[in-house]
Amino acid sequence: MPSVPSLAATLHMRLAEAVSAALPQDTPAEWIDPMLRRSDRADFQANGMLALAKRLKANPRELAGQVVESLPPNEEIGSVEVSGPGFVNIGVRDAAVLRNLAARSDDERLGVPYAERPGTTVIDYSQPNVAKEMHVGHLRSTVIGDAVTQILEFRGEKVVRRHHIGDWGTQFGMLIQYLVEHPHELDHESDAADAKDQGEAAMARLNRLYKSAYSLFESDEAFKTRARDRVVLLQSGDEESLTLWHKIVDESKTYFQGVYETLDVEIRDEDIVGESAYNDGLQAVVRDLESSGVAVRSEGALCVFFDDVKGPDGTPTPLIVQKSNGGFGYAATDLAAIRDRIGTLEADTVLYVVDARQALHFRMVFETAQRAGWLPEGAARQLAFGTVLGKDGKPFKTRAGESVRLVDLLEEATQRAALVVREKAQDLTEDEIRERAAQVGIGAVKYADLSNSMTRDYVFDLDRMVSLQGDTSVYLQYAYARIQSIFRKAGDEKPQVHPTVELEPAERALALHLDEFGDTLAAVAATYEPHKLAAYLYELATLYSPFYENCPVLKAETPQLVQNRLFLCDLTARTLRQGMTLLGIRTPERL
Ligand code: ARG
């Protein structure tokens, strides 16, 4: 069933409109903002009369009084009064709350409206590097990118995923040359059974290749020269070099897919469009930037300069599009990628889910593309994320100072989660425990990442992440599972709403929060802030607790009350499930 906008409109939105319409007739449109909020004192409080009174040079309490006059109680509004210095307090009728939620519940999208003008967004996320391990930075990019993608798609945006993997560059000369000279280096016996083990085995072979090639490169001048020549061969399209390069890339993809499976994210092969894919566009980038004067030659290199980007000694730091030896780097590829994304894929918006430490790179790349006329102003945006820290507050590293392997972290998270699951559920089989532990452990890692505002650094603390107390995914999963256990007793029949039955305070609080889901998602999609969805869900689970404790469901006094409470349980569960799904987190039926 499609979302009907009028049904989808939350009470909040409708009340805000009503208050706006109740303002003095001649109020200029740009001053109209009722600033309606949920409140402890009433269901809603409008604070906008204070600012407006100042502008109109009126008395705020009088202005608020006028608004109250022209806002008589009706089907929705049960009470309305002036409070404090000029606030308007509004109470909503129980029946209106319940009817609104019933309409939301009848919609499979839970009343979440589609975006009014959906466009095309290209999102660049989860971009690990070929022949290297994935680390905790790739976790952030993958998890945030996946959530943003799901949220935008849910709102009706067309989203094109681009995994800009690091599959090009000088290190491939060394690896390929080594393979030319040791053709059996990547050979192996039959494949392991599952994707994860296959991936691990592939990575082990790549590590071995990398080590051997690197040590030869460092110790043998003649090999070094052959490796450098090999890069030139590769870039000029030499068949043999390309075949071996493909072999290395494929090994890496096998490894990536193993990690993605563990992480429970779907990454499709056709969306993996690495740096190499833009190779053919690089010459044109250089030609066009040079002829338009956007880039200039400086000591042989092709550079773009910026007034406000300078090194510590005050000399300008340019973006280098082409090195003096003719080679291309990271910047050139990103510029060619922008032309493809805006020009060919016709993106309205291009997003880059990349570490905040690359902010300067993207600022320069975007500015260059704009000057060249390839990128409309404001169309590109880096969703810059902070660093994952260890318990010592420093960037997360192993004791030996190496970056932590993502697979090790995920394994540890799942093991911790298994302890929690085992303790909670006595009657689960070993298989069930393993499955739940993965859903709980991986969910915990994702949630800990997503519930922090993206730009913030956060401490990777597994004990906290898998805790049943506090703002964790386990807490949310537990709330969901608790509701499912009620339905195992009550049966699956869809509960019927009885709008004439009064709501208790805990029911009202839960119901009014449920009603905000659509608005929350719209805001989250508009600002690319998954942490606000996480905060919404956490509050939902938090409001469910007092409801669960104070309002017996199956043992409620009347059959109507039983139905109404079952209805609230059902909508809470579906809202939790939908929200968590958008964050990439599973909701097991039992915990
Ligand atoms: N592969 C890079 C890294 O691991 C991230 C690529 C980001 N995307 C881009 N279009 N530059 O740091």
Please tag this protein with its features.
single chain, 591 residues, alpha/beta, Gyrase A, domain 2, Isoleucyl-tRNA Synthetase, Domain 1, four-stranded antiparallel β-sheet, four-stranded parallel β-sheet, 52% helix, globular, binds arginine, aminoacyl-trna synthetase, ligase, Arginine--tRNA ligase, cytoplasm, Arg-tRNA-synth_N_sf
Description of the structure:
By secondary structure, the chain is α/β, with parallel strands linked by helices. Among the domains are: 88 residues, 2-Layer Sandwich (Gyrase A, domain 2); 76 residues, no CATH class; 124 residues, Orthogonal Bundle (Isoleucyl-tRNA Synthetase, Domain 1). 52% of the residues lie in helices and 10% in strands. It contains 21 helices and 13 strands. The strands form four sheets. A four-stranded antiparallel sheet has the order 1-2-4-3. It has a four-stranded parallel sheet with strand order 6-5-10-11, with helices on both faces. Helix 7 packs across helix 10. The protein is globular, with a radius of gyration of 29 Å. It starts with a helix and ends in a 9-residue tail after the last helix. The N terminus is likely disordered. The structure holds arginine.
